[in-house]
Amino acid sequence: MLQGSGGGGMSPMIRMTNIQKTYRLRRGMFASTEELMAVNDLSLEVAEGETLGLVGESGCGKSTAVSIMLGLLQPDHGEVEIAGQKIDTMPVADRVRLIQPVFQNPNASLNPVKRIQTLVGQPLRLHGGANVDAEVKRMLDLVGLPSRLADAYPGELSGGQRQRVAIARALILGPRVLICDEPTSALDVSVQAQIINLLLSLKKELGLTMVFVSHNLAVVEHLADHVAVMYLGQKIEEAATDALFADAGHPYTRALLAATLPPDPQAGLPEQKLGAAAADPFATHQGCFFAPRCPNMRQSCVEDPQKLRKLRETMVRCERAV
Ligand SMILES: Nc1ncnc2c1ncn2[C@@H]1O[C@H](COP(=O)(O)OP(=O)(O)OP(=O)(O)O)[C@@H](O)[C@H]1O
Predict the structure, then answer these.
(1) Which keywords appear in this protein's UniProt record, sorted alphabetically (predicted)?
(2) CA of 34 relative to ligand 1 center, distance in Å
């Protein structure tokens, strides 16, 4: 959903408003601290049952944004509401039944000396649920794993199977929201497709609201209803997935598309390449953060703050986009 489109007046399942998060970094033993704004005035809304793709290159603030969404990290400013309740004042027992993460590397989140039965059942045991064994069996079935794997250890499973275990564990408390932070990036391409299809069918079957974080636009194309593109902490474009793929307005989004999709002469999307300069998270100028790499850059881009504005079917943070 585009910001402000409001979901027919009902409050969205996820609402992030004007989130800002700065990290303070020490440079050298005696040097003063330097500030890095990882998330800069980010607002997002996701309607119930929808999937938001959150996209951008490494370091643009995606993980920081979703950690704040999950209530695992405190923002400097701004507010997160899940199902109309503020995340920072929500009791943990309520939060874990409402919103759950699936991370990139299941190896890091699955204790190698515990059996799958124990790992998947653990959240339910911790939060006082009943019929743990039966629920674990149901969850394994839901994510397409044979129940005999309940007795296995994570090291006996393939990468794709381990990610299915992580998804089963995230779902056992029956959350309404699933936050997937690069859940397929560590997997082979063929296994990536299986996990994406699994997430798609779970979304339909369980009515889940999802946020799917990726650096790769092609990966979110099949999953997301709408996509927000981030660059150096800012949302620089947001649109329904079809509109973004057909008619992206921001030069950065167009460059991402050119980098991830095969060239299509019919598509009418001129190929746009990123300049050689890397994104500088310490840049402090007022204007567009992408300007140093932008092929369409003018002096005003560096001087004038860029606001999100409507351009055909997308919201775009670029005064020169046409
Ligand atoms: N704990 C931290 N302390 C200091 N800086 C941090 C910390 N976590 C992240 N950063 C910095 O904040 C910025 C945003 O990082 P973040 O991990 O949120 O981005 P990302 O888009 O998720 O990248 P990636 O895909 O590589 O994880 C980066 O410049 C990163 O170096």
Answers:
(1) ATP-binding, Nucleotide-binding, Transport
(2) 14
Which helix H or strand E contains 241, and what residues bound it?
helix 241-247
Cα–Cα–Cα angle for 202, 206, 211, rounded to 5 degrees: 65
pLDDT averaged over every residue in the chain: 89
pLDDT for position 264: 57
pLDDT of residue 13: 97
Tell me, in angstroms, the distance from the centre of ligand 1 to residue 63's CA. Answer: 7
Whether the CB of 38 sits within 6 Å of ligand 1: yes
Distance 190 CA to ligand 1 centre (A): 28
The protein residue with its alpha carbon nearest to ligand 1, atom 17, reads 63
| DSSP secondary structure string for all residues of 57-126 | -TTSSHHHHHHHHTTSS--SEEEEEETTEEGGGS-HHHHHHHEEEE-S-HHHHS-TTS-HHHHHHHHHHH
| Dihedral sign from CA coordinates of 230, 236, 242, 248 | negative
Per-residue pLDDT at 96: 95
The reported pLDDT for the residue numbered 225 is: 96
Which among 255, 304, 261, 302 has a CA at the least distance from the CA of 276? 255
Contact 197, 143 (CB under 8 A): no
The residues facing 33 across adjacent strands are: 26
Residue pointed to by tokens 């992580």 = 166
Helix, strand, or coil here: 165? helix
pLDDT (0 to 100) of residue 62: 95
Distance separating alpha carbons of residues 76 and 57, to the nearest angstrom: 23
What structural domains and CATH numbers belong to the chain?
A: 14-316 (3.40.50.300)
Whether 64 lines ligand 1, by a CB cut-off of 6 Å, is: yes
Report which ligand 1 atom has the smallest distance to the Cα of 56.
21
Contact 281 CB / ligand 1 (< 6 Å): yes
